[in-house]
């Protein structure tokens, strides 16, 4: 019942126009999801996507373990982080689901946050296939949040059909082909 409620609430959240207009995909940039009426606004920041050497108790890896640091903040209203909406994505578009059910002391807790509160922790991905280039938060709205540029290297993922880039006023200097 709780899981169904969490997934149902995720479906009503959407990326705001400002995220789409600015196309701010750089790791470390805050991006927000809000309910249609603006009563609930959660802000996510993802940083430091890298191969991981962490030991995950009770979990048997199938591929290479990757990790990132995620922060969620209740910018408005009460927010329960829906961690299963995070994915690591390869240049070819292959998604690796976050290992949200594997509890670790370093992990981001899925506890409810009151306005102004935040929570930070590691998120882990078991990557089978190509190395990930990005992390996305996909709430099923058709416009996922995305972090892909580290500020020093050019993004190699094809961005031609990126819904967040579709309305950019200026091309991204780090995306392939200057998206």
From TrEMBL:
Residues 25-147 form the MPT63-like domain. Residues 1-19 form the signal peptide. The keyword Signal applies. The keyword Signal applies. Keywords: Signal. SUPFAM superfamilies: Antigen MPT63/MPB63 (immunoprotective extracellular protein). Pfam families: DUF1942 (PF09167). This is DUF1942 domain-containing protein.
């Amino acid at each position: 019942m709780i899981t169904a409620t969490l997934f149902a609430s995720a479906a009503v959240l959407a990326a705001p126009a400002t995220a789409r207009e600015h196309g701010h995909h750089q790791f470390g940039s805050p991006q927000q999801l809000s309910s249609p009426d603006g009563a609930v606004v959660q802000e996510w920041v993802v940083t430091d996507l890298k191969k991981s050497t962490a030991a995950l108790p009770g979990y048997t890896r199938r591929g290479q373990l990757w990790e990132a640091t995620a922060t969620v903040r209740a910018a408005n209203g009460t927010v329960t982080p829906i961690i299963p909406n995070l994915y690591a994505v390869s240049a070819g578009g292959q998604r690796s689901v976050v290992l949200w059910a594997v509890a670790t002391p370093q992990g981001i807790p899925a506890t409810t946050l009151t306005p102004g509160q935040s929570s930070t922790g590691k998120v882990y991905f078991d990557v089978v296939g190509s190395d990930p280039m990005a992390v996305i938060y996909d709430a099923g709205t058709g416009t996922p949040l995305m972090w892909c540029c580290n500020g020093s290297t050019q993004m190699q993922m094809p961005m031609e059909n990126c819904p967040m880039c579709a309305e950019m006023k200026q091309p991204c200097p780090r995306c392939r082909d200057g998206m």
